[in-house]
Specification:
Layout (H helix, E strand, L loop, with lengths): L3 H11 L8 H4 L4 H7 L4 E4 L12 E4 L5 H7 L2 H7 L19 E5 L5 E4 L3 E2 L7 E2 L8 E6 L6 E6 L5 E6 L9 E4 L4 E5 L11 E7 L2 H9 L4 E9 L8 H5 L6 E8 L6 H10 L8 E2 L2 E2 L5 E5 L2 H16 L10 E4 L4 E2 L7 H4 L9
Parallel strand pairs: 17-18
Antiparallel strand pairs: 1-2, 3-4, 3-11, 5-6, 6-10, 7-8, 8-9, 9-10, 12-14, 12-17, 13-14, 13-19, 15-16
Helix pairs in contact: 8-9
């Protein structure tokens, strides 16, 4: 089985291109900065808003986790590439021949990495791009394995291995970012000419999911809701297991909505107004990590909108204490037992017991 390293090395050698001669890349590596960033709990990145425009540089928490947690969160195939710096076989990745318009993001933390308009056919069998969404979002370090000197690239926020960047790409950068499909998710841009109903998903944790679900069910433009658990490591948890506080999951509500009738930003306003985002692991009489305030974003634009909304809220002085709401990429949603679904509506109530 040929690895990408062997294949590219032989190809470049055959073309007379010196693999180690990457002068433009070496100027951008910044290996010392990478080493320092692994100690720093924050990193500067740029996100993409709902119009596809870059946000100003933002300081966000790094998404670093213990190795055993990554093993639980990722499939063995994802872990081998993203944490073990492995390589997919050529022409086998799902995105090597993808021609749809959209944004490629990191599977590990949801950070936007590359746009489809920077993608080109390099003939190597791996997705190739001539530039990233933003230089801040890509980390670089020298890779001297197997007798070559290359530049390895990784996600600046979660350190997931993405691939390598080479000095043989097209104009205007003359660079080729060679990626593993398995390290990326793809978010397709909606065709403006498309017709029919639109549906998007959002996921919020704001305390007891009975009351949170009822709040969002009343919002015009919300098509469906479901309560469940997310953010932890245990697969298919039960309500009783989550209540023991050892699964890492939060009680959440998954919201399916029509963005033509209610925007994601409006849903965020409902979220902020439905609970106290300044109390960690507690909402009223409900205490425990499963009641934490958390927003799980599904797309890069949702993250950008969430962070801008939080920043606006922090500046307007609405809350006297710091907001502790967590912002994370959406993980697996585990639907709670049926008797929890629309619990209050089934009983003709509008608030959780004890409120």
């Amino acid at each position: 089985m040929m690895t990408r390293l062997f294949w590219i090395g032989m190809t470049l050698a055959g073309l007379g291109i010196p693999v180690a001669a990457q002068s433009r890349l070496e100027k951008k590596e910044g290996s010392a900065m990478n080493a320092a960033s692994k100690i720093n709990p924050e990193v500067t990145v740029r996100l993409l808003n709902e119009k596809g425009n870059l946000t100003p540089p933002l300081r966000v928490a790094r998404a670093l986790k213990p190795d055993n947690e990554w093993k639980e969160l990722l499939t063995p195939e994802h872990y081998k590439v993203m944490r073990g710096k492995g390589t997919e076989r050529a022409f086998c990745g799902i995105f090597h021949d993808n021609h749809k318009k959209g944004v490629y993001a990191c599977v590990g933390c949801g950070l936007p990495l590359f746009r489809s308009d920077a993608k080109f056919d390099s003939g190597t069998g791996w997705p190739s791009f001539f530039q990233p969404v933003a230089e801040e979002n890509i980390g670089r370090e020298t890779d001297r394995t197997l007798g070559m000197t290359r530049t390895e690239i990784h996600c600046a926020r979660c350190d997931a291995h993405l691939g390598h960047v080479f000095d043989d790409g097209p104009d205007p950068t003359r660079l080729r970012y060679c990626l593993n499909s398995i390290a990326m998710s793809f978010h397709e841009t909606r065709d403006p000419a498309a017709t029919g109903p639109r549906r998007e998903k959002a996921m919020f944790g704001a305390g007891c999911f009975w009351g949170v679900e009822e709040t969002f069910r009343q919002v015009k433009g919300v098509a469906a809701t479901a309560v469940g658990f997310s953010g932890g490591l245990r697969k298919y948890p039960t309500y009783e297991q989550v209540c023991r506080h050892d699964t890492g999951h939060a009680e959440v509500v998954q919201v399916e909505f029509d963005p033509d009738r209610v925007s994601y930003e409006q849903l965020l306003d409902v979220f902020w107004g439905s609970h106290d985002p300044t109390t960690a692991d507690r909402q009223g009489p409900d205490v425990g990590s499963q009641y934490r305030s958390v927003i799980f974003f599904h797309t890069p634009s949702q993250e950008a909108t969430t962070r801008m909304s939080l920043e606006k809220l922090a500046k307007n002085g609405r809350f006297s204490r710091p907001i502790v709401t967590q912002i994370e990429t959406a993980r697996e949603f585990y639907r709670a037992e049926e008797y929890h679904q629309q619990y209050l509506a089934k009983r003709g109530k509008s608030d959780c017991p004890g409120k």
